[in-house]
Amino acid sequence: MKSPRSDSNPSSSETRSAAVSRRDFLRTSATAAVGALVLPGVAKAERDWTNVQPVRYPDTDIVALDPRFNKYKIGNTPIQRLHVGTMWAEGPAWNAVGRYLLWSDIPNDRQMRWIEDDNRVTVFRQPAGNSNGNTFDWEGRQIACEHGNRRVVRYEHNGGFTVLADKFEGKAFNAPNDVVVHPDGGIWFTDPGYGSLGNYEGHKGELLLKEATYRIDGKTGKLAKVSEDGFKPNGLCFSPDYKKLYIADTGSSHYPNAPKNILVCDVIDGTKLGKAREFTSMKMAMKGGEQAGMADGIRADVDGNIWAAGGWVGDGYDGVHVFAPDGQRIGLIKLPEIPSNLCFGGGKRNRLFITASQSLYSVYVETQGAHIT
Q1: What mean pLDDT, rounded, does the chain reach?
Q2: Is the pLDDT of residue 39 over 80?
Q3: Which of 246, 249, 272, 270 shows the shortest CA–CA distance to 259?
Q4: Residue 114, in any domain of the structure
Q5: CB of 103 within 8 A of CB of 90?
Q6: CA distances (Å), 152 to each of 101, 165, 178, 285, 372, in order?
Q7: How many domains is the chain built from?
């Protein structure tokens, strides 16, 4: 055993040995670095980017179509694919307490969870009633629209669930689709009926009600139809001040004469809707002529811009379309798959999460979501 003194005062031979070791290391490293250089006449070995494809900043798929969008772009952030493996991903909702993103995989009858701290993905709930849209209420309870069971449910803190609505005027809903909450506790949802059109996203059955938008009173639980405007009301969101409700109309999927647009209605007394009017058309000028897809899920940011999952056209159109409060398209986040829905999340509500076909994507933006989810 060495004495304390010999530990604190190494011999000169030990010092020389350490110095030689460092010189050898530096010499070896330098030689290796020179060997890695591409010399004239020497072929360069191709790098393998298979596992993680690099993105050169700025990401060219985040496109400003109007100067107003430049303030929302971040020059050194990429579009990220967080997960792949769903059949038709839908209904993303951010849980701020648990720091996770919840979403639906409708055909596989399950809800998925992406956990922020380690990027882990787990099955959150299965079976899940072929759930589509999800959100969290002001008490942090999950609310889900179940295609398969034709109902809207709330999952309670004790692990049970409450059926909030499954019928209107004695008739079963078609297949509730998307849902948002109001500060007064009211729950607003759409019922276009996609989950009852076949056995892939629910159970094939007759549509018993006209496609419509509904409200559940937060205090009494009373159900009311607030609008029949739109051929097939789908995604919906409030303006930042809750004075307007935006509704994506996807009626063109089954009604040939239906326009491809997003509607907007004035919210009256917090409980009713005025007559719907067109907020914006989904038509967009592209090479080869004007094209129009459909907007599905939509969300508002704090500045009143509407972020819409738009698709069913192809490359150059499918992605997130961003509309200024005046209805003008100002930005586009292009995706390689058809997007279905989106929400803002993360610790600062400045991370946009997008469900798209078989995948979950995200991108940071220089704004925040207007609401809790």
Answers
A1: 90
A2: no
A3: 249
A4: yes
A5: yes
A6: 20, 5, 10, 38, 19
A7: 1
Instruction: Quote the pLDDT of residue 53.
Output: 78
Look up the domain containing 236 and give its range: 66-364
What mean pLDDT is predicted for residues 292-307? 98
Contacts of 210 (CB under 8 A, 6+ apart): 228
**Of 255, 250, 240, 231, the residue nearest 307 (C-alpha):** 240
**b/e string for 161-190 if b means 16 or more Cβ within 10 A?**
eeebbeebeeebbbbbbbbbbbeeebbbbb
| Residue-wise pLDDT tens digits, 176-213 | 999 999 999 999 999 999 999 999 999 999 999 999 99
Going across the sheet that includes 187-191, the strands are 179-181, 187-191, 212-216, 223-227
Q: Which residues contact 101 (CB under 8 A, 6 or more apart)?
A: 92, 93, 94, 95, 113, 114, 116, 343, 345, 353, 360
Coil vs helix vs strand at 127: coil
Q: φ and ψ at 346, to 5 degrees?
A: 85, 170
Q: Give dist(CA 79, CA 121) in Å, integer.
A: 18
DSSP class of residue 126? S
Q: What gap in Å lies between CA 111 and CA 216, rounded to an integer? A: 23
CATH number of 245's domain = 2.120.10.30
Residue 21 lies in a domain: no
Q: 356 lies in a domain?
A: yes
Give residue-wise pLDDT tens across range 24-37. 444 444 444 444 44
Question: Token digits for 78?
Answer: 């990429």
Taking the C-alpha atoms of residue 321 and residue 199, their distance in angstroms, rounded to an integer, is 30
Q: CB neighbours (10 Å) of residue 113? A: 16
